[in-house]
Specification:
The structure holds two protein chains of two kinds. Chain A is α+β, with helices and mostly antiparallel strands. Chain A contains four helices and six strands; from the N terminus they run βααββααβββ. In chain A, a hairpin with a 3-residue loop joins strand 2 and strand 3. In chain B, helix 1 packs parallel to helix 2. Classes of the chains: A alpha+beta, B alpha/beta.
Chain lengths: 154, 116
């Protein structure tokens, strides 16, 4: 029996200023093929921008590349974003609070994970010393309970 | 959308309107901040950021807006936004920015509410 490949789109981007927009544009094209609608498309695009810039800024990846695969499934769009950096422990990322951040001199950054989790239906992070893989899912039609999971490789 | 960004500034009564054009990332945020700082240092206190021509932001750009908000609050001033794309307004809501800065559907609505 002939193998029927999954519908998928692969994209590799260098960690350079504004290259996250290349990922965002690809996400928009994929979302259009899937007929995700304007609101969900914008949410996917925003989450992907945040995932890319997190990787650009924090991964310390030696090859300075981000590998992105879009899986176009019947009921959902799955995006897997991978880098070959040094990894991080998402459990150690502090939940941002605007009240705290508005105190004089407080660091204003640190919203990326919260935005990704808020924009997507599911976010799974696997991270270890050989890199980080983030799987983000947006369902086409269903309103599903959000899920966030984290796996840290020792 | 290209990475190009610029800010136009104009005054309507006591309100300074900063209109952004392009992707509000770190570079865009710094450009807004630079224009804001100058006006704020001169003693101005009411600011409206018009995002009609900005369709995409990232959290670094918005974090710079938080610095602007903090400085405005420190001097008992006002900061508001107008013409936000739905995804930008949603981003502001997630970050809690809308608790401190009102988002208006248009600059006209904002200027009315800011007592001009």
């Amino acid at each position: 029996m002939a193998h029927v490949p999954e519908r998928e789109v692969k994209l590799t981007i260098p960690m350079l200023q504004n290259m996250e927009l290349a990922a965002s544009k690809t996400a928009e094209a994929v979302a259009e093929v899937m007929d995700l609608g304007e609101e969900k498309t914008a949410e996917v695009s925003m989450a992907l921008i945040e995932a890319c810039i997190n990787s650009f800024e924090h991964s310390k990846s030696p090859d300075r590349q981000v590998y992105i695969t879009f899986f176009l499934k019947d009921d959902r769009l799955e995006i897997v974003l991978r880098d070959l950096g040094t990894g991080f422990d998402p459990n150690e990322v502090e939940e941002p609070s605007l009240d705290r951040k508005l105190s004089h001199g407080a660091r204003k950054r640190g919203w990326g994970l919260k935005l990704m989790e808020s924009m997507m239906d599911s976010v799974n992070i696997e991270s270890g010393k050989n890199g980080t893989s983030i799987t983000m899912i947006k369902y086409k039609n269903k309103t599903v309970e959000k899920s966030v999971s984290v796996e840290v490789e020792e | 959308m290209s990475g190009g960004f610029n800010v136009d500034v104009r005054q309507e009564g006591s309100v300074w309107i900063l209109s952004t054009h392009g992707y509000l990332n770190n570079i865009g945020g710094e450009a807004v901040s630079e224009r804001f700082q100058k006006l704020h240092t001169e003693g101005n206190s009411i600011f409206l950021i018009d995002l009609a021509d900005t369709r995409i932001v990232n959290s670094i750009g918005v974090s710079i807006l938080l610095e602007i908000l903090e400085k405005t609050m420190e001097t008992k001033g006002k900061l508001a936004f107008a013409n936000c794309a739905p995804i930008i307004e949603k981003t502001f809501q997630i970050m809690g920015l809308t608790q401190y800065a009102t988002v208006y559907p248009s600059t006209e609505d904002a200027l009315k509410a800011l007592d001009i």
